[in-house]
Amino acid sequence: MIDxxxxxxxxxxxxxxxVSPHNLDKPWFPGxxxxxxxxxxxxxxxxxxxxxxIVPGEPTKYEKELDFEGLFKNQKYVGRWMRINEGKEMIxxxxxxxDLFNFLPWADELIKTIKxxxxxxVPIIGQMMVHDVSPEKWADHAKKIESLGVDLIELNTGCPxxxxxxxxxxxxPPEAKWGMMMGVLPEILFPVFDAVVSAVxxxxxxxLTPESGFPRMMFIAEEAKKRNLKFIVxxxxxxxxxxxxxxxxxxxxxxxxxxxNLLADFGGAxxxxxxxxxxxxxxxxxxxxECFSGGGITRPxxxxxxxxxxxxxxxxxxxxxxxxxxxxTKINEFIEAYMKQMGYKKIDDFKGLGLKYLKGASEVxxxxxxxxxxxxxxxxxxxxxxxxxxxxxxxxxxxxxxVKYCSSCAMCTTICPYDAIEIIPR
Length: 426
Prior knowledge:
CATH class of the largest domain: Alpha Beta
CATH superfamily of the largest domain: Aldolase class I
Number of helices: 13
Low-confidence stretches: none
């Protein structure tokens, strides 16, 4: 029997894949209507359910009544997406928003609606934020979220949404300073860790912001472990500026914002490499705290890659946006088929296997090779000969490698669009 279940912080999940917390850009979301969407994820095979961005307080009357005109007039609960293409292919999405948070009453309604319907081993993760630096306020909010019946708590210390509010960094609103920025300020972050862990009985983790960078993220991870946090969400979107429209005077490309080029966050397939970095380095160097990985997952193989770099579970949004909810089913089917093919019975059989091959350049001997043209693949396009490499040239419509100048750097293998160059032992 193939068992694709996993555990995160001691909590069993029937599958290692689920959906990342959503940007709250729908006026019906969350609540009972949102529960319909969440149950689609469950029906597709999600291993967990995320309740996103739960903040203290109550929704406004415009939000309660779904008064769209009032929401826009008062600029509440408003978000915008923009597709970034290379040719016809989407390479990223950029997102900007105002005041897109989830309130306790909505989270309560959502959890009460879905929890009785959840299959065994599909836990609920409550993601929380407090727009304040007070550890006591974070602890009080965490206790309220625990009382809703969630199985794990994630401290969202990586959300960039409110930092989009102003260009003037000295005038950022409190939620920006203590949202995304909180993840890079240990003096603010660590007392909150201590207060929340002491206040609740369920496992607590936190979202690592990519703005913390390396190696600071390692210090933050080490301290989180010391403070008894159980997991790290290893990726969040980068803070970003969208590209201007060069054919329209430099205006922005976001729809229905009067040409503004807005501060935003950056998502899509490219995020995956930030996830690989954080997952691998934390898993390799810091035992005792688990990685909950995600970002840029667009193929089922990406989940296996994250697990091989030490992740305990993965969350996806890019793949859901790109391919639809059935992407979850496709991932689960792929994991099971992959495990059968490779002879693995359970996730732990291959979890972390790639870490033994993770090395710094100073630890490895670089072998002295030479570039070799694979004649049956080469189209004689000449792209490699037009590069700055001194070793490759074209003579009489034939490619030549001058071994005297070839240092086997393998740049030519990345230049060739037809995979017609390799490096081989001399």
